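Long-time lurker, first post. I've been practising inverse folding by hand and with some scripts of my own, and I keep getting stuck on stretches where the structure tokens seem ambiguous. Below is the full token string for one chain I'm working on. Before anyone asks, I'm not after the true native sequence, just a reasonable design that respects the backbone. If someone could post their per-position residues I'd love to compare against what I wrote down in my notebook.
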């Protein structure tokens, strides 16, 4: 198959003339050849970090946490500097990758508890199904956090629907976040290593009688936690929610990354002769940060940095496996993150004390839970030898919601009007052959009422509302530009070219820009206009 022409990229939008100057991608690239033939059906691996920020990666400027493997991946491939997760938290960002839709369109697409039902309709279209139906072997190994089952989950029987019902041939997951119960793996439909004589029970409302929690047994803890994270204790760390039983099934936090890697190696090895899609969402550096002992002390920024180094090492191992199997040239690897960084996310694990001023959001303001750039502008590195030219640094605007239409284009799949409604075909951008990215980026903060919009270099945050459970201290006291508080009922406008740190509100000086952007914002938010937005 030769490369399909972009089908859904061009958006006629009256904002474009106004922003055309800003919309020109500021890129430098060392690529010289422009080989437009793209081999069909490469293996695809998406390695997805949890809470790793723009500034946490060496290639993106990190000095205190060293990430040689991602740096090498960027040096031999492309790093994107205006690539965004759709949201500032996990569930909505993952929802967007799988469905090709902005998450605010589904009111359930919010941070889910471990007993929440499956968020994505198994009968609908999604990116996994797309790979599966075009003959790929599909697997997810890692963090899920998109719900399981249809309501009450009985963890002791088959748990479905879940990843398998969405199109994954194989699935080995952590059901939710690693700071939530149950602290077990789910392999296919079943809790891994569960002993039927010691059944597992989970409750998010109340504890099971007699079971220790972080509040009742602080002496069992490695470090203290806030009230929300002071439920059941596992591996010396209290979690959100309560669990009982299932002792043989409990994961080992420090071995988690090794376990995932071992399974990824097995899957890649088994499928080296046929195309495969591996979604590899790792848990670093989400709390609780419990890296393998081999990484302790590997950064001077404490557990948060060490956990990031563990992630980086794992990325390197994936390349080692591909090299050993001789399939590197036929494998497209993407590394990115689900949302921006955070230091204190509920545990006294020393992240703030050991930060030493490490700018985890790079030059940007904010981090996880906010609508500032630091919340969703994340590392995005693409490597595919022979196709993606080495050393490209692209500032083209790209959103993870575009993965669906871009991969559809790669696979030769025509999407219908209902499929991937927010997803644009930016295959050429994703492979570094074009720098003509998205005309606009919607950025979802925590919840659905805190959204940012970027057009060209303009950034609008209308009427910000941070839910009251978001603690302003979360985003690094060490990094003053990360303080996320904004006034409600105020419209904020920033110019990212002059002010990447979003420090100065210039809404009053540019009422015409505010008006145009508010109009676009309203159109994006109004579902009826989705067709207009996508030019179809
Ligand atoms: C929040 C948790 C936080 C983290 C987050 C999900 C509290 C106070 N905070 O509700 O610790 O688990 O959910 O993170 O409960 S995410 O990266 O998966 O979106
Ligand atoms: Ca996350």
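-- Answer (accepted) --
I ran through it position by position. Result:
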């Amino acid at each position: 198959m030769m490369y399909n022409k972009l089908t859904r990229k061009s958006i006629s939008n009256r904002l474009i003339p106004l922003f055309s100057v800003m919309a020109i991608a500021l890129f430098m690239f060392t690529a010289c050849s422009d080989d437009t033939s793209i081999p069909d059906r490469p293996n695809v691996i998406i390695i997805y970090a949890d809470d790793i920020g723009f500034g946490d990666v060496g290639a993106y400027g990190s000095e205190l946490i060293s990430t040689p493997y991602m740096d090498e991946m960027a040096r031999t491939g492309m790093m994107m500097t205006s690539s965004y997760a759709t949201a500032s938290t996990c569930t909505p960002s993952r929802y967007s990758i799988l469905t090709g839709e902005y998450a605010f369109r589904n009111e359930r697409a919010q941070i889910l508890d471990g007993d929440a039902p499956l968020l994505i309709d198994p009968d609908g279209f999604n990116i996994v199904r797309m790979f599966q139906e075009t003959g790929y072997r599909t697997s997810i190994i890692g963090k899920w956090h998109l719900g399981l089952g249809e309501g009450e989950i009985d963890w002791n029987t088959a748990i479905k629907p879940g990843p398998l019902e969405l199109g994954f041939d194989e699935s080995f997951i952590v059901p939710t976040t690693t700071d939530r119960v149950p602290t077990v793996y789910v392999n296919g439909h079943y809790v891994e290593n569960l002993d039927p004589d010691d059944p597992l029970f989970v409750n998010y409302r109340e504890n099971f009688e007699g079971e220790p929690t972080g509040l009742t047994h602080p002496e069992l803890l490695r470090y203290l936690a806030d009230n929300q994270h002071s439920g059941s204790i596992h591996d010396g760390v209290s979690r959100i929610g309560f669990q009982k039983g299932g002792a043989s099934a409990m994961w080992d936090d420090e071995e988690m990354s090794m376990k995932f890697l071992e399974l990824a190696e097995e899957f890649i090895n088994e499928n080296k002769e046929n195309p495969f899609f591996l979604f590899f969402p790792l848990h670093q550096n989400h709390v609780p940060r419990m890296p393998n002992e081999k990484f302790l002390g590997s950064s001077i920024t404490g557990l948060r940095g060490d956990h990031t180094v563990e992630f980086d090492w794992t990325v390197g191992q994936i390349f080692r496996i591909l090299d050993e199997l001789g399939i590197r040239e036929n494998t497209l690897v993407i590394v990115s993150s689900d949302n921006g960084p955070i230091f204190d996310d509920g545990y006294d694990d020393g992240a703030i004390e050991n930060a030493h001023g490490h700018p985890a959001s790079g030059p940007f303001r904010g981090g996880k839970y906010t609508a500032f750039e630091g919340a969703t502008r994340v590392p995005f590195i693409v490597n595919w030898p022979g196709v993606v030219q080495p050393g490209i640094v692209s500032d083209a605007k790209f959103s993870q919601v575009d993965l669906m239409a871009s991969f559809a284009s790669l696979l030769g799949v025509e999407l219908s009007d209902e499929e991937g409604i927010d997803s644009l075909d930016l295959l050429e951008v994703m492979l570094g052959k074009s720098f003509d990215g998205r005309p606009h980026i919607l950025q979802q903060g925590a919840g659905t009422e805190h959204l940012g919009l970027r057009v060209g270099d303009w950034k609008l945050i209308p009427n910000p509302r941070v839910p009251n459970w978001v603690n302003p201290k979360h985003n690094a006291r060490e990094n003053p530009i990360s303080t996320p508080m904004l006034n409600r009922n105020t419209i904020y406008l920033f110019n990212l070219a002059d002010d990447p740190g979003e420090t100065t509100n210039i809404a009053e000086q540019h009422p015409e820009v505010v008006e145009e952007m508010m109009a676009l914002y309203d159109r994006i938010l109004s579902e009826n206009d989705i067709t207009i937005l996508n030019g179809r």
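A couple of notes from the structure itself: The radius of gyration is 22 Å. Residues 50-51, 89-90, 111, 145, 177, 179, 228, 240, 286-287, 339, 345-346, 469 surround NG6 (ligand 1) (CB under 6 Å). Happy to go over any region you disagree with.
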